[in-house]
């Protein structure tokens, strides 16, 4: 009796992965968290549940990804090294539309000094130690080993991209990675703006009674100001809200008895500006806190 013929399907070639995804998987394998970028070098928009920041932010926004959302969400916080996430259906849909790959430098222990034009590159060659460099469309990326606070426009044509930021991957570059120098860290320290006068001390009446005020005790007041500075400095997200709440707390404790001086207020403004707040934002937050307290 003739046996039936078994027909075997010959598997065809596997679909070729999009070029950005192949690059991303190679980077992720080296421990660099990656994410796709759409046209315009921008990350994909938040998922419907998080659109317009209605989610109020998530805990993972304080550190590296992966984001807890199923798709590519929350910009730099989506960056991941997990190949299962990178090749998931939701992410594959994004990779098919992606035009390039980005990475989260800070999560990889790196800092990128983004030099946006030839003048900025010339400045870096004079002011900064040599390290690995990558050519960009208009300038160069200088990459250092070590993470720090990110900040844009630290000088003309110069941005710093490290923690809570993303940078485009433009190739391995040339040269040897060197340790993040103090000269780069110093660029992110922002002192009080010279364009605005220093904040003035509050003109509030002295407390009624015998004229003594427990807030005038040097140790008590100093501890309060130091704690306020520390709270602002330690903020890793929601800096605007943290500054406002801190100013509100200081004013509610020390603002009605005439304790605060120009020096105290300037210390608070300096701490806020070091975290990236502008002088205008500091003044607005201070004014809003006073208004809230009816001062």
In short:
The protein is α+β, with helices and mostly antiparallel strands and about 300 residues long. It has helices at about 20-30, 85, 90-95, 120-125, 180-185, 220-235, 240-255, 260-275, 280-290; strands at about 35-40, 40-45, 100-105, 110-115, 130-135, 140-145, 150-155, 160, 165-170, 180.
How do the helices and strands line up, and which of them pair or pack?
Elements: H1 19-28, E1 34-38, E2 42-43, H2 83-86, H3 89-97, E3 100-103, E4 110-115, H4 118-127, E5 132-135, E6 140-145, E7 151-155, E8 158-161, E9 167-168, E10 178-179, H5 182-187, H6 218-233, H7 239-254, H8 262-274, H9 279-292
Parallel strand pairs: 6-10
Antiparallel strand pairs: 1-2, 1-3, 3-9, 4-6, 4-8, 5-6, 7-8
Helix pairs in contact: 6-7, 6-8, 7-9
Contiguous runs where pLDDT drops below 50 for at least 5 residues = 58-64, 192-212
Q: State the order of secondary-structure elements, H for helix, E for strand.
A: HEEHHEEHEEEEEEHHHHH
Helix content: 25-40%
Q: Strand portion, in percent?
A: 5-15%
Largest sheet: 6 strands, mixed
Describe the global form. globular
| Annotation field: number of helices | 9
Structural Rg? 26 Å
Mean pLDDT: 80
> Structural class, judged by helices and strands?
alpha+beta
- Give the total of beta strands: 10
Write a structural description:
This protein is 33% helix and 14% strand. It contains 9 helices and 10 strands. It has helices spanning 19-28, 83-86, 89-97, 118-127, 182-187, 218-233, 239-254, 262-274, 279-292, and strands at residues 34-38, 42-43, 100-103, 110-115, 132-135, 140-145, 151-155, 158-161, 167-168, 178-179. Strands 4, 5, 6, 7, 8 and 10 form a 6-stranded mixed beta sheet that branches. It has a 4-stranded antiparallel beta sheet with strand order 2-1-3-9. The protein is of the alpha+beta class and 295 residues long.
């Amino acid at each position: 009796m003739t046996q039936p013929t078994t027909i075997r399907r010959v598997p065809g070639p596997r679909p070729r992965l999009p070029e950005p995804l192949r690059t991303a998987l190679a980077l992720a394998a080296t421990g660099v968290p990656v994410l796709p970028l759409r046209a315009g070098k921008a990350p994909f928009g938040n998922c419907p549940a998080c659109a317009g920041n209605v989610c109020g932010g998530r805990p993972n926004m304080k550190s590296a990804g992966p984001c807890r959302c199923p798709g590519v969400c929350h910009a730099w916080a989506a960056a991941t090294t997990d190949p299962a996430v990178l090749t998931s259906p939701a992410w594959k849909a994004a990779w098919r539309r992606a035009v390039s790959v980005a990475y989260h430098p800070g999560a990889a222990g790196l800092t990128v000094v983004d030099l946006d034009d030839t003048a900025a590159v010339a400045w870096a060659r004079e002011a900064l130690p040599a390290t690995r460099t990558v050519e960009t469309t208009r300038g160069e990326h200088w990459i250092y080993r070590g993470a720090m606070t990110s900040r844009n426009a630290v000088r003309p044509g110069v941005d710093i991209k490290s923690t809570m930021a993303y940078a485009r991957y433009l190739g391995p570059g040339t040269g040897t990675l060197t340790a993040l120098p103090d000269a780069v860290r110093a660029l992110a320290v922002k002192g009080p703006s010279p364009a605005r006068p220093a904040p003035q001390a509050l003109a509030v009446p002295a407390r009624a009674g015998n004229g003594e005020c427990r807030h005038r005790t040097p140790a008590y007041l100093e501890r309060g100001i130091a704690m306020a500075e520390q709270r602002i400095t330690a903020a890793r997200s929601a800096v605007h809200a943290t500054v406002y709440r801190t100013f509100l707390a200081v004013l509610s404790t020390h603002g009605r008895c005439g304790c605060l001086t120009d020096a105290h207020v300037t210390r608070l403004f300096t701490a806020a500006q070091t975290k990236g707040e502008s002088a205008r934002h500091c003044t607005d937050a201070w004014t809003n806190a006073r208004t809230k307290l009816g001062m």
